[in-house]
Amino acid sequence: MRVLIVNTSEKTGGAAVASNRLMEALKNNGVKAKMLVRDKETDQITVVELKHTVTLHWKFLWERLVIFMHNHFSRKHLFEIDIANTGTDITSLREFKEADIIHLSWINQGMLSLNNLRSIIKSGKPIVWTMHDLWPATAICHYAHDCISFTTGCHRCQYLHGGGSDKDLSAIIWEKKKDLYRNANISFVTCSKWLRGEAQKSGLLIGKRLTNIPNPINTNSFRPTDKREAKIHACLPIDKHIILFVSQRVTDQRKGVKYFIEAIKMLSDKYPEMKSNTGIAILGGHSEEITNQLALPAYPLGYINDERKIVSIYNAVEAFVLPSLEDNLPNTIMESMACGIPCIGFNVGGIPEMIDHQVNGYVAKYKDSDDLAMGIHWVLEDSDYRKLSDNAVHKVSIEYSQHNVAMNYIEVYNKAISTNK
Question: In angstroms, rounded to a whole number, what is the distance separating the alpha carbons of residues 383 and 29?
Answer without folding.
Answer: 38
